[in-house]
Amino acid sequence: MEVTECPMCGNDIHVEGRKEREILECADCGVKLEIVSQAPIVLEILQDAGEEWD
User: Fold this and answer.
1) Name one Pfam family in it (predicted).
2) Per-residue model confidence as pLDDT tens digits over 8-53
3) Taking burial as the number of CB atoms within 10 A of a residue's CB, which of 1, 4, 12, 26 is the most buried?
């Protein structure tokens, strides 16, 4: 079973059978995450379309 950590809250995220560029949501904190790499597994927090990041 492939498991990684939510970069926002540290909750376990199960990514088995998921593909790169797939969008997930953390069940604990609700943040939307994108799988940006599978080897190693890397999740990136998605920004909202209306939100600007510096």
Assistant:
1) Zn_ribbon_LysW
2) 999 999 999 999 999 999 999 999 999 999 889 999 999 865 555 5
3) 26
